[in-house]
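Appendix B. Raw example, untouched.
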Amino acid sequence: MLLAGLASAVGPGALIALAPLGARAQAVAPGLAPQTPQNGAIFSFSDGGESGRQVIPVRWTSGVGVWSLQPQAIRRFVDTGVVSDRSLASAIDRAGWSPEELRLGLAKPYSVDLVALARFLYSSDGLAFLRTQTRGYGPSSTPSTYAVEALRSAIIAAAAGGQISAMAIMAHLPTDFSTGQGCGRLSVCAPSKCVGEAQCTSLLSWYVFLPACLQANQARQPASAGLGPLARSPKP
């Protein structure tokens, strides 16, 4: 069973249709070619700052092992459908979605208003949202310490062009992120709308849901009042 929307989970009046994704693929574009956001960030991952290496946004623990999914593998999968390594195959198997649904969900762009989105992310509600979303998923080197700030910066950078997607958020993470970094268990932002444990708790599914929840929440923020009040908003 696929999702019909996120309205009841993320706020009144926010009908975010995530499914049936298979039908959406034919309605939006022929085949499974993802729609690239206008900001062009979907396939450009952070180079890791001074280290000169790419950030690894998808890293998770399983038993005593740690799995890392290279950005190139994610890009290739979303762009072509090719599963190029064992880590990617494992991530897909545990996601709770079919490979085709994952490709569409990760690439799907959502229109957002940058000012309204920033206002939400710096509000008390937005801070609570970010804290919830970074329980169990945060910077690998400094568990939970800068998780909220890092995720918020990635979201705002990803939305700079007026659209946001899961791939764009991954691309703008400032450092490696992995699961098991906080005090809680990873859970998607619309838990009442996921189907089955894998879809509700897997990292790739978390990314599929995230931009839809962000679009719904920012839609309730005033977009024309400017950013001045942000300086007085709650911060972690």
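End of appendix B.
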